[in-house]
Automatic annotation (TrEMBL):
<dbReference type="Pfam" id="PF00392">
    <property type="entry name" value="GntR"/>
</dbReference>
<keyword id="KW-0804">Transcription</keyword>
<dbReference type="InterPro" id="IPR008920">
    <property type="entry name" value="TF_FadR/GntR_C"/>
</dbReference>
<dbReference type="Pfam" id="PF07729">
    <property type="entry name" value="FCD"/>
</dbReference>
<keyword id="KW-0238">DNA-binding</keyword>
<dbReference type="InterPro" id="IPR011711">
    <property type="entry name" value="GntR_C"/>
</dbReference>
<feature type="domain" description="HTH gntR-type">
    <location>
        <begin position="8"/>
        <end position="75"/>
    </location>
</feature>
<dbReference type="InterPro" id="IPR000524">
    <property type="entry name" value="Tscrpt_reg_HTH_GntR"/>
</dbReference>
<protein>
    <submittedName>
        <fullName>DNA-binding GntR family transcriptional regulator</fullName>
    </submittedName>
</protein>
<dbReference type="InterPro" id="IPR036388">
    <property type="entry name" value="WH-like_DNA-bd_sf"/>
</dbReference>
<dbReference type="GO" id="GO:0003677">
    <property type="term" value="F:DNA binding"/>
</dbReference>
<keyword id="KW-0805">Transcription regulation</keyword>
<dbReference type="InterPro" id="IPR036390">
    <property type="entry name" value="WH_DNA-bd_sf"/>
</dbReference>
Length: 220
């Protein structure tokens, strides 16, 4: 795990480090986060680390219980389905709203992101792919001026991405499939086929859900 850089606000750095460790699977579901141990490991006091835990708990990434260490949250089949339902509502609505704002600069960012996804897959770096996957969706979310919608959409985008890493047996196949679906969304946008882009996003989210279910079916 990374160390704290003293020139930047301690709680912000601790938050970024712990969150990255959770999203990449370095910290697994059910792992405990004892304050004293992690504050010492990060090189900070317990107060900024408590602030970090509170922010992560607000995002649903950790669970805090009175008198016990915080725990990295787990993802059940039911939770995954609930998160996906919220992504449908938020992201499809958001895309429809922000598509008129997509200019050549945004399209360039999307192309660059897709190239980074391809590179991550070629290197078998699936944690890197998931980071690029989150960024692809975040490009559209960040075009919306509604800051509250941004917060909620980013939360569920992050949570579902982390769930994929936790369900790691699906990642190699899922990454290739998701890349193809992202390319189809981008192609529709480049052709200014906004109805097609919205439909491609719906198909993509539907297939993300199917990939979750594929994992859970194998576990039953």
């Amino acid at each position: 795990m990374k160390k704290i850089n003293k020139t930047v606000r301690l709680s912000d750095q601790a938050y970024d480090i712990i969150k990255e460790s959770i999203l990449t699977g370095e910290l697994a579901a059910g792992d405990t986060l004892p304050e004293e141990r992690y504050a010492t490991q990060l090189g900070i006091s317990r107060t900024p680390f408590r602030d970090t835990l509170a922010r992560l708990a607000a995002e649903g990434l950790v669970i805090q219980k009175s008198g016990a260490p915080a725990v990295v949250a787990e993802f059940t089949k039911e939770m995954s389905l609930e998160y996906m339902e919220l992504r449908y509502v938020l992201e499809v609505y958001n895309l429809e709203k922000v598509l008129p704002k997509v200019d050549e600069e945004i399209i360039y960012s999307l192309r660059e992101n897709v190239d980074q996804q391809k590179d991550a897959i070629s290197r078998n770096s699936y944690s890197d792919f998931m980071a690029r996957d989150r960024e692809f969706h975040s490009i559209f979310i960040d075009l919306n001026n509604n800051s509250e919608l941004q917060k909620v959409a980013h939360k569920y985008n992050n949570d579902v991405s982390r769930a994929f890493l936790l369900l790691s047996s699906t990642v190699p196949t899922s990454a290739t499939e998701a890349l193809e679906e992202h390319c189809e969304i981008l192609n529709a946008i480049e052709q200014k086929d906004y109805v097609g882009a919205k439909n491609k996003l719906l198909i993509h989210l539907s297939k993300v859900e199917q990939r979750f279910m594929r994992y859970y079916e194998n576990q039953d």
